[in-house]
Design goal:
Elements: H1 2-13, E1 39-43, E2 47-53, E3 56-61, E4 64-68, E5 74-79, E6 84-89, E7 95-99, E8 103-107, E9 115-116, E10 118-119, E11 122-123, E12 127-134, E13 137-142, H2 152-157, E14 163-169, E15 174-182, E16 185-190, E17 196-200, E18 205-209, E19 215-219, E20 224-231, E21 238-245, H3 248-254, H4 257-266, E22 293-294, E23 297-298, E24 308-313, E25 319-325, E26 334-340, E27 343-348, E28 353-357
Antiparallel strand pairs: 1-28, 2-3, 3-4, 4-5, 6-7, 7-8, 8-9, 10-11, 12-13, 13-14, 14-15, 16-17, 17-18, 18-19, 20-21, 21-24, 22-23, 24-25, 26-27, 27-28
Length: about 350
């Protein structure tokens, strides 16, 4: 009862969960141009899911699985039947692949040929992230049970929270649900004491999920929508991508149910007042023209629906440093990254490029 009263009071005062205020980007999150200044390694359509394997650095581009070459090009290894939504390597030759059509499969290794479309009778709809803890155990995020990964804007605009996190024992053929009711879990890493760390996009936070299913918020009130997580090549730090920014306008639209429902019913998703992975490209998009630019120059206060941000977190979840592609940049929609001894590799899904920044 107290929760109902609190939410009603928040809506009346515009506070708490009903507030449209946003956390400032200062301190370790201070805006910079490190992503736009980074070295371009390869230009390709919608790069995503970059990871290191015994066969080299692999990444996805729509339905294609690619390998980065030392010369900066890419070789096509495999073409799937739908877009590749997540990748994981066990470090010894096995690769877990999630597909937008609602399927997870294993290529190579001791479980080569394994394929799943259901977990304990529940259909796989949106596999968003995966990580091996050993060759027989796979941790898997399902972002939603209502919408596929390609319909992530619809999932946000309809305010869904049907995501889940699973632990798959590939040898025994069993699946255990670690947590349900999450608002688009999009990144996962294994942690100590059989716990996992998960990014929850629509709640703008990073969670720790214990072996008993209890959740603890590690990092809250992020200024953007968190994506994938990966451990640093040295030490216990984490790297977290923010694939799109939060804005006061989008926060306001999320609280106006009638307007949002009419927008979804009558306008193409590309032109919704919603986060985007790329900089404006059409005159049909919201908030363009005089709202953003004057005499061809971007206004300093212009709201942007797209950005590129990567955060470095310490073991406690505190931000230590960040890399940005700002509103006037083009390397937006950074969905995954890969730390290496030569720098940080990042996939700009909205900018169609893979870059490497010095650290």
């Amino acid at each position: 009862m107290s929760n109902i009263f609190s939410r009603t009071l928040d809506r009346f005062r515009g506070s708490g969960s009903a507030a449209t205020t946003l956390p400032p980007m200062d301190g370790a999150l201070r805006p910079n141009t490190r992503i736009d200044e980074a070295e371009a390694l390869a230009s390709l359509e919608a790069p995503d899911n970059i990871l290191s394997t015994p066969d080299g650095i692999l990444l996805s581009s729509r339905e294609r699985l690619l390998r980065l070459t030392p010369e900066g090009g890419t070789d096509v290894i495999w073409s799937a039947s739908s877009d590749i939504t997540c990748l994981a390597s066990d470090g010894s030759g096995a690769l877990a692949v999630g597909l937008d059509e609602g399927r997870v499969l294993i290529r190579g290794g001791r479980h080569d040929g394994w394929e799943g479309t259901q977990l304990n009778g529940m259909p796989i709809v949106a596999p968003s992230a995966a990580v091996f803890t050993d060759p027989d155990t796979l941790l898997l995020c399902l972002a939603s049970q209502d919408n596929r990964m390609g319909d992530w804007k619809l999932d946000l605009m309809t305010k869904r929270a049907s995501g889940s996190v699973w632990k798959l024992d590939l040898a025994a053929g069993t699946a255990t649900c670690l947590c349900r009711g999450l608002a688009f879990p999009y990144g996962i890493v294994a942690a100590e004491e059989n716990s996992v760390i998960v990014s929850e996009s629509w709640c703008h936070q990073v969670l720790r999920i214990g072996a008993d299913g209890r959740t603890e918020v590690m990092l809250a009130e992020l200024p953007g929508y968190p994506g994938r997580l990966v451990r640093d090549v040295e030490g216990e730090d984490l790297w977290l991508t923010l694939f799109a920014p939060r804005t006061q306008l989008i926060e306001f639209v999320l609280r106006e149910d009638e307007y949002r429902q009419r927008m979804i019913a009558t306008i193409e998703p590309e032109y919704w007042i919603a986060p985007s992975l790329h900089a404006p490209t059409s005159y049909l998009e919201p908030l363009q023209g005089g709202s953003l630019k004057q005499l061809g120059e971007l206004k300093p206060w212009a709201p942007s629906r797209s950005l590129g941000i990567v955060l470095r977190l310490d073991p406690a979840g505190h931000a230590k440093e960040s890399l940005h592609s700002r509103a006037n940049g083009v390397r937006h929609g950074v969905t995954s990254c890969l730390p290496s001894r030569d720098g940080l590799l990042m996939t700009s899904k909205g900018g169609d490029v893979v870059v490497r920044a010095k650290l």
